[in-house]
Amino acid sequence: MELELRDLHVSIEDKEILKGISLKVGQGKRHVIMGPNGSGKSTLAKAVMGHPAYAVTSGDILVDGKSILGMKTDERARLGLFLQFQNPAEIEGVGFINFLHLAKQAAGDTRSTKEFMKEIKEGIKELKMSDEFIKRPLNQGFSGGEKKKSEVLQMNVLKPKIAILDEPDSGLDIDAIKTVSESINSMQEKEKTGLLIITHYSRILAYIKPDVVHVMVNGKIVDEGGEVLTEKLEKEGYDSYISG
Amino acid sequence: MSKAAAAPQRSGEEVVVKDDEYLERYGFSDSFEYKFKTKKGLSEDIVREISEMKNEPEWMLEKRLTGYKQFLAKPTPQWGGNLNNIDYNDIYYYLKPTDKKGSNWESVPEEIKKTFDKLGIPEAERKFFAGAEAQYDSEVVYSHIREDLEKQGVIFTSTDEAVKKYPELMKKYFGTVIPPSDNKFAALNTATWSGGSFIYVPKGVKLKMPLQAYFRINTEKAGQFERTLIIADEGADVVYVEGCTAPVYMSSSLHSAVVELVAHKDAHIRYVTIQNWSKNVYNLVTQRAYAYENAHVEWVDFNIGCLVKGTSILTNNDVKSIEDLNPGDRVYSLSQEFEIDAFNVVAKRENPPTDVYRLRTINHREIVATRNHPVLRMHKDSWYNKISWTPIESIKEGDLVAISGDIPDRGKPYKITGIERVKKARNHINIPKETNEDLMWLLGVYLRDGCMEKARVNIAVPLTNASNQKVRSLLKSVFGADTKQYKVTIRVGSMELVKFIKSMGLSGNARTKRIPDWIYKLPKAQKLAFIEGYLAADGHIKRGHKNVSITSTNRALLEQLKALSISCGLNPGKISKWTSHEQKPLGKEKKEYTHYCFCFSDHRLDMPIYFVPVSKIEYAGKEITYDIEVDGPHNFIANGIFVHNSKLNMKYPSIFLKEKRARGEIMSVAVAGPGQMQDSGGKIYHLAPDTTSQIISKSVSSGNGVSNYRGLLHIAANAANVKSSVRCDALLLDEDSKTSTFPYMEVKRDDATITHEASTGKVGEEQLFYLMSRGMSEEDALTTIVLGFLDPLARTLPLEYSIELRRLIKLDMSNSVG
Q1: Contact B788 A74 (CB under 8 A)
Q2: DSSP code of residue B433
Q3: Range of the domain at B365
Q4: Where are the domains positioned within chain A?
Q5: Residue contact A92–B790, C-beta within 8 A
Q6: CATH superfamily of A3-243
Q7: B30-66 pLDDT tens trace
Q8: Cα B151 to chain center, whole Å?
């Protein structure tokens, strides 16, 4: 599967946030969008997923060459798109495991419940989470780190074709970053998932090696390159792009 | 702590009902069954008769008679809704035989059948609904259950049977928790009760399985005044679930049950009600529990509401304007079998002005209603036609909606009484004793072209008119009246005829004449004769058309005529406005004439229901709207279009904590969908020290639904160290929905610990987006959020009911998703 953004313009309440973004994420590829806070990275993630408050004013979002602008969020998800939330919503009274099961059903996933549960348990082990975790209500009272792990766990068991990870490393300590990154890597290699990682630090990139790095400033892609670009950003920061 | 709180407010519902025709149709159609029916109304004789029919012992008769006396003495309670309109003399108080025909399995709505399947209610029990033969089968099932429980000494039987088999227990407990002197409805129930469950759990017996109410229906057909009594002796434990089954098909419309719970020392009773979503009765249940030392009582109440809901309709239905309809009136509804029949209006509500929309069909039927008001729509679903109740907001131009066609003729000739002879009259006329077609034809002619003087009736029909001869000969044959032709007018010099026409409600001039109410109630042939008479004199037949068109300056009259025509199965067209300008020959003054034109096709509709395309849906401003609730199939015909009705529900269980360390909990869930009002809550009386209580009320409202919490917390002067918490959580699914809390406290001590929390939440866009980003449809996402919100209470349900709850909520949500 291939995700393509073509000259994408997105506004929130008539304020333009994305001012013409073009990029392509292909199967098994690892893309990174880096940029300072407020550059529109999270907006991009939500717009791709079809958040109703984010209006696409021009340009297009395509999956395998077909526009998905007319599709609702759930339809996009069922195509195989996944968004790992920076701040997932808390939902009272909905158990994590029930939620995952509903998501599996929605996807028309034919795995047996037994098989599915087995994968969840393996995922929990891999992410070094507590077994108790899956019995708790969805995201309620989760710490920052638990929320990140919960999101990664969901991605690992739902096996999307293209995943957008919005700040997967924020709120994680060094050990946890390593654990989470290894988990993402193993899923990605096995499933040939296309990844679009959004971050403003390069720390996680020490573990997840990107194929392409995009630099985003003020709603535009201002630079693109290979992994070497991250080293440049590490040294110089975004100043040169902002002033330039 | 604060003692002040808002006083409970009265809401504006009205209640009531009666109905003989319905009863006759559904179970009392032969004389054998008639003898088991008491007369309408309540009297000491009726009470004695009920007791006698049941072969009751003397002591029970005494209790009934005490109840009857209290009933007469008590005022109508003013807590909650308006109950002042109940006509107690218009109700049957005792109906011994089951109303089998109304409750056969075939007539059970599809969704309820499915529910039964899901709940796993055995085939044999289901067959109960098919009548006598199946009752035999169900006996077997019941015996099996009873046998199992009997080993532990548990009694689970009908209250009627308990009077005979367990007189000691009954004498000891019956009416002790809710004595007849408590309130008018408790007194009424004591006098007339029939059916209900009796449960006794002996000392130390803890039942592992919940007792389920659908067994109850196997023993004795539940009456309209059920009486349930549950006693948990010391240390006993029982969970009772009153499911969504039994009372659906009762023919009663006033449901005034009494439920008494007694929890002895260290005992635990949990009473769970899943409100019957298609219950066709107004619910006035009195539920009360006594909790003794260290006992624990829980009321859990789920009110999920009607499966399909509607709201308001503005204009008249085929008989009356909705604002003039009152509980007890009859309207025509579409039954499950797709036949039109008359049903009662059981409740009515006026709503503040809201946005309304006008829906018009290609044949000019139109209604104005709120956007969520469901009409019956037919649409093609792959290769078959699917018919469903669909809110107006989801109807598009070109969609097919149901209109009424041929309506069953239940009219009766109108009895003419009270016409005095005028002594000095020169020519007496004959006044018929009741209406007939000839008379109605003449009155139709009069309505169109007649006027009166003090002692003369004039009808403007020139000699050249084809109807002239008929008018004159009918005046002679019906009234024996002599006529004279004066220019273009037929004159009848008769003061008696003038008085007669006035007394029939047909006076007035061309602009003020109206069709009097009694005409709508005539047999179809007489109504048609009246319309024909109206059109006879100068109804205009367009060349080349079979249609008759007629003009008048009296628009209101034409609207009435249209409604009357629809009720006769005619297919009237639209009423349109014509304005003609005329220039006066002298001066420049222009004169404008406004007429209304109304077209008639003589094409008669001979089927009860037709589907016709919608020609227009448009915004029609803000208006006051009305809801009516209709007995039976819950729909009615508004301006010749089928619409679904709405539902009102109110219930407040109470707990008396009578001894130290007793605990009481009242948990209620109310889901108010479009057009519904749910009132829930409860009352807790702390009458002893160290007692604790908890009230949790959770409500979900969508599509202008309203849910209210009403609660009373009473702490007596001797009740030291009381702990109580009240928690009201409301979840609103859209901007139009509302919630209110009316907490009321009577606290006589200052050492009580009372907490009151109320929260109102909205389903967040982010929550929906999150769940949908995982592939859930909007409907599933909403259902998940709502169920999560209700989860703390849903956990108290037995598993099969939790599954059912999910399905019910889901159905409700599918109406909320735009």
Answers
A1: no
A2: S
A3: 322-408+608-644
A4: 3-243
A5: no
A6: P-loop containing nucleotide triphosphate hydrolases (3.40.50.300)
A7: 222 323 445 556 788 888 988 888 889 999 999 999 9
A8: 44
Q: Is residue B720 part of a domain?
A: no
> Which CATH number belongs to the domain containing residue B475 in this structure?
3.10.28.10
Return the bridge partners of B792, or none: none
Tokens, residue A131: 């077994």
**Predicted pLDDT of residue A102:** 85
A218 phi and psi, to 5 degrees? 50, 45
**Which of A46, A88, A103 comes nearest B775 by C-beta?**
A103
- Alpha-carbon distance of B125 to A216, in angstroms, equals 68
In a domain, B667, yes or no: no
Q: Which of B603, B636, B652 is the last residue before a domain boundary?
A: B603
A48 touches chain B (CB under 8 A): no
Q: At what angle do helices A174-191 and A144-158 cross, to 10 degrees?
A: 10
Q: Are A199 and A205 in contact (CB under 8 A)?
A: yes
Interface contact flag, B773 A93, Cβ < 8 Å: no
Contact B778 A74 (CB under 8 A): yes
Q: Phi and psi for B103 in degrees, rounded to 5?
A: -120, 25
Query: Are B44 and B14 members of one domain?
Result: yes
DSSP string covering B563-577, please? HHHHHTT-EEEEEEE
Residue type, A37: N
What the block records as the tokens of B372 is: 């969520």
Strand residues in B169-328 grouped as ranges (E): 197-201, 211-212, 227-232, 237-242, 254-255, 258-263, 268-274, 282-283, 286-291, 296-303
Q: Is the pLDDT of residue B220 over 50?
A: no
DSSP B508: S
Domain count, chain B: 4
Q: Could you say which of B538, B568, B585 is where a domain stops?
A: B538
pLDDT for res B775: 92
Q: Please, how many CA atoms are within 13 Å of residue B595, restricted to the half-sphere of its CB? A: 10
Q: Are residues B92 and B182 in the same domain?
A: yes
If you average pLDDT over each of B144-148, B390-394, B524-528, which comes out highest? B524-528
DSSP notation for A97-116: HHHHHHHHHHTT----HHHH
How many C-beta neighbours within 10 Å does residue A38 have?
A: 13
Greater pLDDT, A95 or B24: A95
- C-alpha B99/C-alpha B107 separation (Å) is 12
Residue B784 CA to residue B806 CA, distance in Å, equals 9
Question: Chain B 753-782, CB below 8 Å of chain A: which residues?
Answer: 764-767, 769-778, 780-781
Q: Locate B684 and state its tokens.
A: 């807790």
pLDDT tens by residue, B350-376: 555 667 777 787 766 767 766 666 677
* The token pair that represents A6 in the structure block: 């073509």
Using DSSP bridges, classify how beta strands B211-212 and B237-242 pair: parallel, antiparallel or unpaired.
parallel
Q: Give chain A's end-to-end CA distance (angstroms, integer).
A: 36
Structure tokens at B121: 């209610």
Query: How many A/B residue pairs have CB atoms within 8 Å?
Result: 76
Residue B787 included in any domain: no
- Mutation test of the interface with chain A: which of B698, B774, B776, B778, choosing the one with the most A Cβ atoms within 10 A? B774
Q: Which residue, A104, A97, A106, is CA-closest to A137?
A: A97
CA–CA distances in Å: residue B764 to residues A90, A148, B426, B674: 10, 21, 83, 20
* pTM, entire model: 0.58
Residue B776 lies in a domain: no
Rounded to 5°, the CA angle A99-A103-A106 comes to 135
Distance CA A75, CA A83 (A): 13
B495 and B631 inside one domain: no
Q: Do B788 and A102 touch (CB under 8 A)?
A: no
Residue pair B591/B580 in contact (Cβ under 8 Å)? The answer is no
* B470 and B572 together in one domain: no
Beta carbons of A52 and B765 less than 8 Å apart: yes
For chain B, say whether A206 makes contact (Cβ under 8 Å): no
ipTM: 0.96
